[in-house]
Amino acid sequence: MTDTGLTGNDSLILPPLAGPGRRATARKAALALSALVLAGLIGMAIFAPLAAPYDPMEINLEERLAPISSRHWLGTDHLGRDVLSRLIWGARASMGSVVVIAGLIMATGFITGAFSGYIGGRTDSVIMRVCEAFMTFPTFILALFLIGVLGTGLTNVILAIVLTHWAWYARIIRGMVMNLKNRDFILAARVAGGGPVKIFLRHIAPPVLAQLVILASLDLGHMMLHVSGLSFLGLGIQPPTPEWGCMINDARQQIWTNPELAIIPGVMIFLTVLAFNIPGDILRDKLDPTLVERE
Amino acid sequence: MSCPALVINNLRIVYPAGQRVILHDLSFTVPGGSTVALVGESGSGKTMAAMAVMGLIPSGIFQAGGDITINERPTGNLTPEQYRELRHKSVAMVMQNPMSAFDPVLSIFQHFKETFASHGVRDRKRIRDLAAEALRGVGFDDPRHILELYPFQMSGGMLQRVMLAMALIFSPPLVIADEATTDLDVISQAKVLKLLQDHCRSHHLALLLITHDLSVAAGLADEMVVLKEGRLVEKGPVSQIFKSPASPYTAGLLAVHRGLYTPRYRRIISNMERQSV
Lengths: 295, 277
Description:
By secondary structure, chain A is mainly α. Chain A has helices at residues 8-13, 20-46, 48-51, 83-119, 121-135, 139-150, 154-181, 184-191, 196-232, 244-250, 260-287.
């Protein structure tokens, strides 16, 4: 907004720079680009063993901190490991853990939230108090606690993130379900003789799931930052396993001499978070016909 | 004529939290194949009576007494499952608020599909044909196109007619229309009511018409039940009530009605209807 140098009033007076057609094209281009980036990242994660030119853990002290060259496209780190290979393998750890976390959060959040909202009454109150208890824990504190008790490792990081996030989802979903369940079309379905389970599956679950997927896709980036953040602090994925957050942590010593070692994984995190936000848009348009932009 | 489609006997509905009685011992009968209008102002308990018939009284409100018999089947000791079955087989309801009575994320075809599926019809092509036929019956010239639309792409009047088509498709013995035409302009209202009446007559269905509009009652109903604040004020044949209302409340309603529908107004409306038809 600010970089155009226009205030809100100016844009009202000036004729629009791009017509709706051009805007739609730009939107499509952005979507295509994000889809491409995401496909590339997922491909990297899946085909890491094939795509990586070197073993990401192979230490070669003779070639430590090598600059960008034809042998090492992105150079090597302080132990002489190939940065590109580590980046590719890192996609696996980062994206894999995010997918697991998102899946677990969505499943727990949806089941408890939908159950709570649909049943209502005392059950609902009890479940919501439990949710509130979980919502009071900050992610990093709970992660520190779990890791203190159970030891470091990816599993505990995933557990900590899921435990501190599911309650938010449960609450949001409960709200959506409660809102939907009092709508006229639910009454209409009941009038037509639909049973509670069938009505839930047919009229309540689909719109709620659609919103849930959008919500989660917007949150994927945030979860990824959590994983990387915890790994950066040395609580999550342990060196020498390649992971982007770990890589930034490893590069701390060389931040002044070889800043690219921290910047490159940082850019990867940035790109991934950005690219994750786009499928949410596509899904929203696909899943909710009332929200489609009228062009 | 034949057996009664709906018998309500001393129905009493209470709202304990508000210490209110919503319906005071209401009794009336809808004979099979006839049309009964349930008339009253907003808040007189008309919709609650309909919900009680459907067995869908909102939570916090209770039926404190009386019994309801649908199609000679007492509903008093039905399990929720049996009641659902009864609703499904014997009653159809046209709700008020057509704009919100459809699931916004399902197309009209999907709505029909669900209705058919609950009656055991799953063949898509057959559903499409039958649904198109039903939509044609409520005055859509291009029913196949309508089937592809989503509720938000249609007007209130169109949705009301779709709802009517959907409610009447299996011709249940009892149809309840709860302010079914309130949201519509007079011309659409006349059309929808005509459709409703024709269908119920030709299929010999009983119709319980819930309305606050006396002209609707006058136009369609055989009998009329007048409610005021949950109490039955008067019931009897429509012609008789219009000619000589027994209660001062009904007389008042009629006076207001006549005040609104002056001869000049009626002339304008009938001209408009003539031009549109």
